[in-house]
Automatic annotation (TrEMBL), chain A:
Domain of life: Eukaryota
Keywords (A to Z) from UniProt: Autophagy
Cross-referenced InterPro entries: ATG101
Originating species: Lactuca sativa
The protein's name: Autophagy-related protein 101
Any Gene Ontology biological process: autophagosome assembly
Pfam families in alphabetical order: ATG101
PANTHER family: AUTOPHAGY-RELATED PROTEIN 101
GO MF term list: protein kinase binding
Family stated for the protein in its record: Belongs to the ATG101 family.
Gene Ontology cellular component terms for the protein in this record: Atg1/ULK1 kinase complex; phagophore assembly site
Coiled coil region boundaries: none
UniProtKB/TrEMBL annotation, chain B:
Source organism (scientific name): Lactuca sativa (Garden lettuce)
Name assigned to this protein: Autophagy-related protein 13 N-terminal domain-containing protein
Alphabetical list of Pfam families matching this protein: ATG13
Superkingdom, taxonomy of origin: Eukaryota
InterPro entries on file: ATG13, Atg13_N, HORMA_dom_sf
Compositional bias per record (Low complexity), positions renumbered to this chain: 576-592
Gene3D superfamilies according to UniProt: HORMA domain
Length: 210, 619
């Protein structure tokens, strides 16, 4: 989804995306909190739930960690929402089943430092003129990233509005959000993203990993 | 999801109503600039210090709707109240960017009241003023207006809704629960979206800096869609939220917005904005469209700046077109002041040059009274002292007795308005503002107006008075300083200070107080005026005396003598003029007096007349 994200931009990009999703899935009473990105001219909204923020930040830390360790891999972060079904506890110890009803996959193509690897970016760079000054290039790249981030946010909004029927009834919530989990995976397979995305949406794919 | 067939429609309707309210709140909250800057973020932090979102201890009922707690937004609240009543009408919210010319002169141009107007007026009142889109480019002081966002929230109800709802349908999609849930989602999206749109940057810009910007955001809420002009529409991009379907209809939120807001706000000094916008727009139309806004702008912003400096009132006066009456807003803090200014000078076509009493006093007629009346309508609370100071403390003018206009000015100013305040106490049925102007209407009947005011019981006396007062006017015309004596006697309020009345005595002074002076020459009067007028007046006196000699015997009735003398007055124009002045001044002044004063005066007049007649008879 997002390419040419520089290392230091990962955090903001992920925060922005994840929280925007959460804002649409945390259907309990929220006091929205506007957050201005430092690196981009984008304002996104958080639910105003400190616990959620903390969790998201933790996951982002993990992700960045992973990116550091495997710089050449496609990195993916997955946000899943599920319902908790209490299986009639029988003789199995497995009492709780996670019924996933939605999963969001965020692929980030992290730029290599000296020269960004523009993978299959749909925002292909106009010209990579070696004579271009570095700062100009950086600005252009930043602007491009900003616009794709913007686009991603609108995609989220669109998706959230188009598909509403699968959302379980809003429980009397203790927490703000539906139960969720954030998973991180990385793969060198470039085609991984979309296929997985579709498949996961169709079949709930219980992952106990946390 | 058990559905109670009876309460379901009511629930649905309530949800929809609240949905409108919440949508409006969300939109305006992020488009309507605050008074103080940036305090809202702090407020937000206070709101959510911890994971207290679910703790509803401090939750207001309004926040619970759709599980979305919003900050207060007065502008939204005031519109919401209105919308609760006019349920289910479409709601159109236009967000308008107002820009002043780049080098707009903040100090010389009067702040514009539109913002206040837009905000303060109730929604209904506002509708008539919704812009024609063609005039978007013009504010009244050269600032430009552009609709940058148009939100339409509406509920499309299906036919047969009632039956469907009251029937015991219970599929999940028709239930109010489902509607509510989907509404929550839609509102969340709306909340996020308003912050992603370009207009939000402007909003932030305005809020975030203490400095005055050359642009501002205003909003207009209406229930009807004012068509946009084609050019605007072509520039705009549409964004549709997927409607929320209910058993009874659809809840829509759609948006038209300008994907790029012209460079004028690049005051924001964001080097990035010009770069990301093309990408963001993305559509093939983007580039040509992006140019468009900048095409019309330059002619207003940089080049038209000299014209943009017009004072709002003069501008308004010069422009006949309706839009001129609606000045564009400015973010200046002096809304209310500017508003009064505007109503004083801008709204009505008679700016202050017209209002000095000069014109009215010269033609003490009804039409002038009307004009003034009109003014007073606008300036109801403008204290009359505004008028008098300009004229009454002007002894030099007054001394130029031959200048009728100035005399009138003098006589009109203070005497007229000072009575005004007193007349307020009079048990009169007529309009206060009219009263001061009625005396001039009867300029030759000094005390009539007073009598009119006092009571109808004095009708007879009035007639009598009228007859006598007119002759007195005649006599005045025949002496050199009638207005002096009159004004002194009647309007010492304003004149005694600057004017030593002992100096003013005419050969034929008919003043009620100063019969002693009668027959004494005007020369002793040390003022320039009396000196100047002495000769012509004396001539006039001579003429009058001649006329009186030829006049019918003393036994003639009052009316006849009165009419005869009026004719005489008109013979020597300068004298007549001063006579008019005198009489009108006295008439204006008369209201100060009580009825008994007037009667006394009448008696004096009668005596004077007798005396005069006797004299003329003797000679």
């Amino acid at each position: 989804m997002l390419s040419d994200v520089e290392y230091f931009e990962i955090r903001e990009v992920l925060q922005c995306i994840l929280h925007t999703i959460f804002f649409h899935r945390a259907l309990g009473l929220v006091r929205p909190k506007d957050i201005d990105l430092q690196l981009f001219e984008i304002t996104y909204v958080q639910c105003g739930d400190a616990e959620l923020e903390k969790k998201v930040d933790e996951k982002i830390d993990q992700f960045i960690d992973k990116v550091e360790k495997h710089p050449n891999k496609k990195n993916q972060i997955c946000l899943s929402f599920f319902e908790v079904k209490n299986k009639q506890a029988t003789w199995f110890t497995h009492k709780v089943e996670h019924l996933y009803w939605e999963q969001w996959y965020i692929n980030i193509n992290v730029a290599q430092h000296p020269k960004p690897i523009s993978g299959k970016s749909h925002h292909s760079k106009l010209v990579l003129d070696p004579g271009e000054s570095a700062s100009e290039e950086r600005n252009a790249r930043r602007a491009t990233l900003e616009s794709s981030l913007h686009e991603v946010l609108f995609q989220i909004i669109k998706f959230v509005n188009e598909k509403k029927d699968h959302i379980p009834p809003i429980p009397n919530m203790e927490g703000v959000s539906f139960p969720y989990e954030i998973t991180i995976s990385s793969s060198s397979d470039s085609a991984f993203g979309m296929d997985m995305f579709k498949r996961m949406l169709q079949t709930g794919h219980p992952t106990m990993l946390s | 999801m058990a559905v109670n067939p009876h309460s379901e429609p009511a629930k649905m309707e309530q949800i929809i109503t609240e949905f409108f309210a919440k949508s409006l709140h969300i939109i305006l909250e992020s488009r309507c600039p605050y008074v103080s800057s940036r305090n809202y973020s702090g407020e937000q932090i206070l709101y959510s210090p911890s994971s207290s979102a679910s703790s509803s201890s401090s939750t207001r009922p309004r926040d619970k709707w759709f599980n979305l707690a919003l900050r207060d937004c007065p502008a939204a609240l005031e519109n919401i109240d209105f919308w609760r009543q006019s349920n289910l009408e479409p709601m159109v919210v236009d967000v308008v960017l107002v820009q002043r010319p780049l080098n707009w002169d903040y100090t010389s141009s009067s702040p514009n009241p539109r913002v206040a107007f837009e905000r303060n007026s109730s929604s209904k009142d506002r509708f008539p003023f919704v812009w024609k889109s063609d005039s978007d480019e013009f504010g009244s002081d050269g600032s430009t207006e552009k609709i940058i966002e148009r939100w339409v929230v509406q509920y499309e109800s299906k036919k047969g809704c009632k039956e469907a709802c009251s029937g015991s349908k219970r599929s999940s999609s028709t239930s109010s629960h489902a509607l509510y849930k989907k509404s929550i989602l839609l509102l969340r999206s709306l909340y996020v979206t308003v912050r992603l749109l370009p207009a939000y940057k402007i909003f932030r810009e305005i809020n975030s800096s203490g400095q005055i910007r050359s642009f501002n955001l205003i909003h207009r809420v209406s229930s009807s869609v004012e068509p946009l002009i084609r050019r605007d529409e072509a520039e705009m991009q549409q964004f549709m939220f997927t409607p929320v379907e209910t058993s009874c209809g659809k809840l829509h939120i759609s948006l038209l917005y300008l994907p790029s807001i012209s460079d004028t706000t690049s005051e924001s000094s964001t080097p990035m904005s010009p770069q990301f916008i093309p990408d963001y727009v993305g559509s093939p139309l983007a580039d040509p469209l992006k140019r468009l806004p900048s095409v019309p702008m330059p002619q207003y912003s940089p080049s038209s700046s000299p014209f943009g400096r017009r004072h709002s009132w003069s501008y308004d006066a010069n422009r006949a077109s309706p839009p001129s009456a609606l000045p564009s807003p400015s973010p200046s803090p002096t809304y209310s002041e500017s508003r009064t200014l505007h109503s004083k000078f801008g709204n009505h076509p008679h700016p202050h040059p017209h209002r000095p009493p000069t014109s009215s006093s010269r033609y003490p007629s009804l039409e002038i009274a009307q004009v003034h009346n009109k003014d007073m309508g606008y300036d109801e609370y403008v204290p009359s002292p505004n008028f008098s100071p300009s004229t009454s403390p002007s002894p030099p003018m007054y001394l130029q007795g031959s200048n009728m206009l100035k005399v009138l000015l003098r006589s009109d100013s203070a005497p007229v308005y000072i009575p005004t305040s007193r007349l307020g106490d009079a048990p009169l049925s007529s309009n206060k503002t009219v009263l001061p102007f009625s005396p001039p209407h009867k300029g030759t009947r000094p005390c009539l107006s007073l009598l009119e005011r006092s009571s109808s019981a004095l009708q007879g006396a009035k007639l009598l008075k009228e007859d006598h007062s007119k002759p007195s006017g005649v006599k005045i015309s025949s002496n050199s300083s009638p207005h002096k004596s009159f004004s002194r006697s009647c309007s010492r309020l304003s004149f005694e200070d600057s004017y030593d009345d002992s100096e003013f005595s005419g050969p034929f002074v008919v003043d009620d107080d100063e019969l002693i002076d009668h027959g004494i020459g005007s020369r002793p009067g040390s003022s320039d005026r009396s000196g100047n007028l002495g000769t012509p007046h004396e001539r006039a006196v001579g003429a009058l005396v001649q006329m009186l000699k030829k006049a019918p015997p003393l036994q003639q009735d009052l009316n006849r003598s009165h009419s005869l003398k009026q004719i005489q007055i008109q013979d020597p124009p300068p004298v007549a003029a001063s006579n008019m002045a005198a009489s009108s001044s006295s008439s204006r002044v008369s209201p100060v007096k009580t009825t008994s004063d007037a009667l006394e005066e009448l008696k004096v007049y009668m005596d004077m007349k007798q005396l005069l007649l006797r004299q003329s008879g003797k000679s």
